[in-house]
Amino acid sequence: MAHINLLPWREEAEKAKQREFFTTLTAIALGAFAVVFLVSQVYQLRIDGQNNRNQYLKNEIAVLDARISQIKTLNEKKNELQKRTAVVEQLQRSRNVGTQVLDEIAKVVPTGIYLVKMEKQGSSLQLIGKSESNNHLANMIRKIESSDLFTDAVLESITANDAQSKLLSDFKMRVRIKGLTDAAITQGASK
């Protein structure tokens, strides 16, 4: 039999199979790389889109925060103006209080009561005077309680003075003027 050397052919066939294997392996590696790259790009686009939406929301939240701070300052100014308006209204109501008090005193003081001194302290009025009888004082208290301007009449003291005539007794009475508050008066005086 003739000697035929088949080794170079087998080596050639093995080399061809190796080339085919490496080519297939390279193609698969490139395909896998392409798939991974495309998937990463898709997810990167989704992340970028979400970041853009988040940034848009942050910008809108900043705009709304600025509006909220403006609303807070406007509410503070509104409250301040309401307080000032209340003080002005209180001062407007109490503008003619002196005249009204004197007019009302003339109505509620019956005969037999003599006022010696009147002191106004905030919204209260202290009356110091002399009375011929306790009945006259009781009538005066009833008139004060039914008055449109006065309220809360409190008789602080009644004293009989022996040195003077026994017919007259000294009294002190405190009366509150309706519609006046001490806080509004002191605020109005300080401005």
From TrEMBL:
Is the Ribonucleoprotein keyword given for this protein?
Answer: no
Question: Which keywords are on file for this protein?
Answer: Coiled coil, Membrane, Transmembrane, Transmembrane helix
What is any Pfam family matched here? PilN
Q: Which residues cross the membrane?
A: 21-43
**Cross-referenced InterPro entries:** Extracell_DNA_Util/SecSys_Comp, PilN
Coiled coil where?
64-94
Which protein is depicted? PilN domain-containing protein
Gene source species? Thalassotalea castellviae
Classification lineage: Bacteria, Pseudomonadati, Pseudomonadota, Gammaproteobacteria, Alteromonadales
